[in-house]
Amino acid sequence: MTEVRMLAMSEPVELDADTLEQLYEALGDAAAEDVVCRAMEELAVKLAQADRLYRSGQIGEMRKVVRSMGAIAKQIGMIRLAVVAEDLVGCVEAQDSVALAAVLQRLMRTGEGSLTEIWQLQDLSI
Length: 126
Prior knowledge:
Layout: H1 17-27, H2 29-55, H3 59-75, H4 79-94, H5 97-123
């Protein structure tokens, strides 16, 4: 009999501390924290929205959401999330439905991990 195993999927998180430090230096602690918190909220909403749009077959709309997600992620130093968002847009443009499904799941894992990581940095007061 063949044994079925579940693979534990995880994604590395990559935050650019220099981007965050520059943001804090430019805006000051309170304003930068506000910007980062609003960006995190927006990213969480966009992650859920991208998943919903994919499931409803609205791939063009999903592409727009993911593209803006990548831009937001880049602004607050979520490098890996921005790269995966760009990869997903590339899958849409290539009309590769198999890769799109896989990269969307990678985006979800990376997004959740990135949000958790930056939240923990916020708790430490960058």
